[in-house]
Amino acid sequence: MKKTPTEVKILVSAKKVFYQKGLKGARMQEIADDAGVNKAMLHYYFRSKEKLFDKVFEESVQSVTPVLMNVFLEDSDLNTKIAHLVEMLIDLFMNEPYLSNFIVNELSQNPEKLFLNVLDLEDGLIGKVIPLINQQLQVEIEKGNINSEIRSAELIVNIMSLCLFPIMSQTVLQKTLGIDDERMIRFMNKRKQTVTQFVLDAIKP
Amino acid sequence: MKKTPTEVKILVSAKKVFYQKGLKGARMQEIADDAGVNKAMLHYYFRSKEKLFDKVFEESVQSVTPVLMNVFLEDSDLNTKIAHLVEMLIDLFMNEPYLSNFIVNELSQNPEKLFLNVLDLEDGLIGKVIPLINQQLQVEIEKGNINSEIRSAELIVNIMSLCLFPIMSQTVLQKTLGIDDERMIRFMNKRKQTVTQFVLDAIKP
DNA sequence: GTCTATACTCTGATAGAC
DNA sequence: GTCTATCAGAGTATAGAC
User: Fold this and answer.
1) Å between CA of A21 and C1' of C18
2) CB burial class (10 A; 0-12, 13-18, 19+) of residue A29?
3) Whole-number Å distance, CA A38 to C1' C18?
4) Identity of the residue in A105, A147, A165 whose CB atom sits nearest the CB atom of B160
5) What percentage of chain B reaches a pLDDT higher than 70?
6) How far is A160 from chain B (nearest CA, A)?
7) Chain A environment of B123 (Cβ under 8 Å)
8) Measured between alpha carbons, how far is A94 from A88 in angstroms, rounded to an integer?
9) Short-list B79, B72, B78, CA closest to B136
10) Given an 8 Å threshold on Cβ–Cβ distance, is B25 in contact with A20?
């Protein structure tokens, strides 16, 4: 079932508004105005605010997971993989500044919205990625290239923290450090190198 | 002006509800019920939902900043300071699991709520902490104890990222990694050591 | 200070014409 | 499929008695 132009317009605007205001803060009227369509159209296509939200949320999660999974599963050594992951995370979430906030926020407020099938537990993070990274870590440890302390879950959490937290707290960061939008973008771009270096330094023996 | 018992009860409950549901998601009735007082009392003491929210928000930020500032300004060497900061951040925000989310969320949705006077720019982070840490870094670099790449703002952002992101994304983390509340607490407690080590390893020459 | 009852507003949702 | 008009419910806020 192909999406009509109106449907697409609604989804684009819904994404924009839900990202910034959240489920409760968003107004159907605002979404309609932004999309340039009548408010009744939102209900015609999506029945209810909640269902529209779920659609947006699902598409958001699905826009992220395959990209990350590709990096995790690519055929490259650990250092390269870390560099790629950092770059990918920062690019991905800087281009959608509200996305990380949106996912984390809405999920902590409505944990039931975490459809496990979307995150694909069996074939996803736990099933494939963690073991794979564990194995790569093991190889590097045996080669003596990294210290044997770090665990894969820990490493992944650390990398995601270093990449995503500054984006999520961008507002606070910019105001407290007194930097404008342009400098923030430069700061985060530079972080692609510094975070990678920071992580590599941290795990080398 | 001393707070009456009722006023205190309302603030405690308001904190609880606002933390979890946010400004828009919270209901005055829920706060009243939780506090065991009449809904009209909330308006009697705080006039409006927004004003009650502002009060809660202000107290939240003020409960955090002095504690952190103390660590930054304590008279200890850099390594000790980093260890303390990590421990403090994790303890502080694990005890109030929704606090970090609350602050970051509401601030990214309503940037105007960031009263600069609360964060105390002149005497606070930018004015005192950053220069101080910079100076400490300089000393350690000259002693040859750390590599000369890292900047103080970067270091602070990294430490906060490593401590706060896992707490903020606790829901997602627990579900994707399939760990229960108790193991999560152990995981974060262990992180006090591993994050400290990770950071120290990252900055040593 | 505290309660009950009520007013008012906002907004999600639907009915029905075109 | 799209629009106008309208309803119904929820939720904030206030008036007024005690």
Assistant:
1) 35
2) exposed
3) 15
4) A165
5) 96
6) 8
7) none
8) 10
9) B78
10) no
What mean pLDDT comes out for the span A152-171?
A: 96
Instruction: Quote the CA–CA distance of B44 and A84 in Å, as a whole number.
Output: 56
Contact B203, B82 (CB under 8 A): no
- Distance from the Cα of B39 to chain A's closest Cα (Å) equals 21
pLDDT tens per residue, range A95-145: 999 999 999 999 999 888 887 666 666 776 777 888 899 899 999 999 999
State how far the Cα of A141 lies from the Cα of A119, in Å rounded to an integer.
29
Q: Are B148 and B74 in contact (CB under 8 A)?
A: no
Residue ranges in A97-203 assigned as alpha helix (H):
99-109, 116-119, 130-143, 152-168, 170-177, 181-203
- Domains delineated in chain B: 5-59 (1.10.10.60), 63-202 (1.10.357)
pLDDT digits (tens, 9 = 90+) for B72-95: 999 999 999 999 999 999 999 999
d(CA B177, CA A125): 8
pLDDT by residue (tens digit) across A63-98? 998 999 999 999 999 999 999 999 999 999 999 999
Nearest by CB: B109 against A22, A111, A116: A22
Burial degree of B91 (CB within 10 A; 0-12, 13-18, 19+): middle
Residues of chain A contacting residue B107, judged by C-beta atoms under 8 Å apart? 169, 171-172
Burial class (CB in 10 A: 0-12, 13-18, 19+), A112: exposed
Long-range contacts of the stretch A79-84 (C-beta < 8 A, 24+): A79/A200, A81/A136, A82/A159, A82/A196, A82/A199, A82/A200, A83/A196
Cross-chain CB nearest to B22 (options A24, A126, A195): A24
State if pTM tops 0.90. yes
How buried is residue A41: exposed, middle or buried, by Cβ count under 10 Å (0-12/13-18/19+)?
A: middle
Length in residues, chain B: 205
Q: How many CB atoms lie within 10 A of CB B84?
A: 16
